[in-house]
Amino acid sequence: MKGQNKLFIAIIVALILGVVIGGIVHIKYPESAEPFSKNIKLLGTVFIRLVQMIIAPLVFTTLVVGIAKMSDIKMIGRVGTKAMLWFISASLVSLFIGLMLVNWLEPGHVTKLPIQDAAAAEDLLKSSKGFSLEDFVKHMIPKSLFEAFATNEVLQIVVFSIMFGVALANLGEEYSKPVVKLFDIIAHAILKMVAYIMWFAPFGVLGAIAAVVAMNGFQIFIVYAVYLRDFFFALAVLWLVLLLVGYLILGKRLFELLKRIKAPLLIAFSTTSSEAVFPKLVEELEKFGCNNRVVSFILPLGYSFNLDGSMMYMTFASIFIAQIYGIEMSLGQQITMLLVLMLTSKGIAGVPRASLVIIVATCSMFGIPPEGIALILPIDHFCDMGRSMTNVLGNALATSAVSKWEGQLENTPQEV
């Protein structure tokens, strides 16, 4: 745990340094803010790219090994069913909490924000126009495994890996054992790489935070204080619900889990990327005592189907935009919106700023001006911090819960 604590402290120090350096540039050298931001952001880009480099092979090898080692197809179906029940329930609860609190707090009615130029949202508007059932199917089923690897399409890799793992499990141990052993070795080698890459995380955090503060200054926290306050309050309620359910299932071991995943949570918060902590999360969940087969099966699925923070944000932001424009939505319309978001948001993991793309598409569907997304673009980075961190917590709890239900959660932590 000593190394983990050192990394955690290094990230905290980097976070503070990032705010201080960004603040100094913004106040004393405003003319240099843009080039400074562009250059220091490269530290974050390097870290994210290092992690993205190992995501595809790690998901593929761990998932194939996990399924092939199960050998029992009934067990695969049982674990998969339990996981999907958790994902669907958690998604509905997250959407409902967002809907309920945005109606109660009404941030769009009390916040006086200038209606911004829609040019800032132009790219998002373009990327949302083609969203359809056809695009969802194309996004889910790969036409080429190599293309899915090249573009880091996690859901497509998951689909292929499940089919390949099931096929290996049905071949019999005589044929599958050498392949499974090879993939197992590769997976462990990649997990070893994770330890090296994670020590670059503080630099990534420093770069990402300094860039945002240098460009926007501290006033961005004041301008959008009401929206951020209400959103983070809603996130706190969601965390309370998730932790309560986690405690009912895991008991006092929940606190041990939180201690284990504190570094991944902080990295996700700082870099706004839950994807960036996937390899580290795999490692920490296995150390916590979760069965490696269950981890390698459920966690990649969770990254596509169990994005609790993003789900809550979608209802919160959509209704907020409606409130800003003075559009009253009936309870029936809001429930319909919730169900639409439930369906359209599945399988969009890996799409840049996926939550915003779905919000734009949903607003268009319900007669809310999609240009309203420009209102929340300036603070989306800060909202993304919260929802990325929540996505990581949700997936860690889902994996631990299913491991416990399967009787595959060891009482004593293991070293990986």
UniProtKB/TrEMBL annotation:
Q: Where does this protein have coiled-coil stretches?
A: none
- PANTHER family from the entry? PROTON/GLUTAMATE-ASPARTATE SYMPORTER, PROTON_GLUTAMATE-ASPARTATE SYMPORTER
Transmembrane parts of this sequence: 7-27, 47-71, 83-105, 154-172, 193-225, 231-250, 319-344, 356-379
The organism's place on the tree of life at top rank? Bacteria
What organism does this protein naturally occur in? Answer: Chryseobacterium pyrolae
The record's Gene3D superfamilies line, in alphabetical order, gives:
Sodium:dicarboxylate symporter
Instruction: Give its localization.
Output: Cell membrane
Q: Which UniProt keywords apply?
A: Cell membrane, Membrane, Transmembrane, Transmembrane helix, Transport
Q: Which protein are we looking at?
A: Cation:dicarboxylase symporter family transporter
Task: Tell whether Transport is among the UniProt keywords.
Answer: yes
Q: Write down the membrane topology.
A: Multi-pass membrane protein
